[in-house]
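Troubleshooting: if your tokenizer reports a length mismatch, compare your output against this known-good record of 438 residues.
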Amino acid sequence: MANILIRKGLLYFLGICITIFVLTFITSGFIRVNVENMGGNSYYPSYPLYEAYADENIVQSISMTDYLADNDITPALDAKGYDGSVLDWHGEMPDTLSFLIDVPVAGTYSLALDFLSSTESVKPNEITVLINDELQTDSAENMQLLPRWATETEEVRFDSYHNQILARHESADHWSTIQLRDQLFLDVEPVTFDFVAGINEITITREQGEFLLGNIHIVEPDELKAYTEYRTLYGPVDTNAVSLVLEAEEYTYKNSIAILPGIEKSPSVSPFSSENNYMNIIASSFSDTGNRLTYAFEVETEGDYEITLKYKNDTYSNRASFRNIYIDDQIPFAELADYKFEYASKWTNETLGDEEGTYKIHLDQGVHYLALEASSGVFADDYRRILEIIDEISEYSLELKRLTGGESDVNREWDIESFLPDTSEMLSVWNDDLESIY
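Known-good structure output:
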């Protein structure tokens, strides 16, 4: 009797599995991917790709046109649409250049550069900045100027089996105004420098890479406002906005060639086909801090929009991920810096918001850019504390070597605290800090 029940149960379970498989197969036959519409999102920026930097916090700017003329330097033959002359900083140029700027008021400012990468190398462009011959912070060393990569063509390519082929990429001729950040992109805020009132010298060393350089700007730092303050700029919420859908794999730009689209054989994502392989997700390669994906889109109706991201975060068990959210190269408010995406083993829709509700982001009619940047700012202080502990341990090790002469003697005992009385306290602090970080 038991065997009969077990047999019936197995047959029932097997029947369910076969039914699900058949229904999925039949249903997938009705899911037709319109290949002609797989060329990307609905808007692509046109050439020339340059917009004058209009940050209201600019204190002073260095005109590259004037600098090149004053120093008898030949400007780049092709300014790539830039409004003015630009410096073609390549291997035959000096690695170090100095610029003088008159700062009206002494203070702490950040630097922004009009920049366009001119190399096809996958290595990032890197610079080091001195102010008045002084390296004011370690964060000013080897700062990265990341390029923008775009697909060579909007045409989607397929192999002989009609599976989508990964598109080739090239460095995009799109000017960026980059506020200089630390090399590891730990902080969303730019690196700041102290300037005196009057003439200051900015010395820039090109550590690696080749790029075009336009105007240089001194910018007064501005703290990110809270969402509640942001909303006061736009009045009552306009709920009449229409929906816009962007395919994640059809980005406009990426700043690392290592970021790759992927294939997920699941009807939870689009485009999907049970028969063929189509790029339909951004793979886990989008993970290094500072990696950024940018999507251009056109808004036909001015209004307040919500942003919903479909994501799956299961690379590491029970570990959240963080992203900085940019609109038109700016983080609109503080809550979109280091935005947390919880662990999710299944595809999940995350509408940006908090316990008070979803965020309403105001968009004017016209072209806009949405960018997602991998971030680890929430761990920045922990990272720096670990580095401090490593330095402190190294210094303590040198003290021990000086005490013992660098010799090990198993037959000799040392009362370390008689010579280094802070030993117990230091070990306790290191232990407590590391346990707290862990």
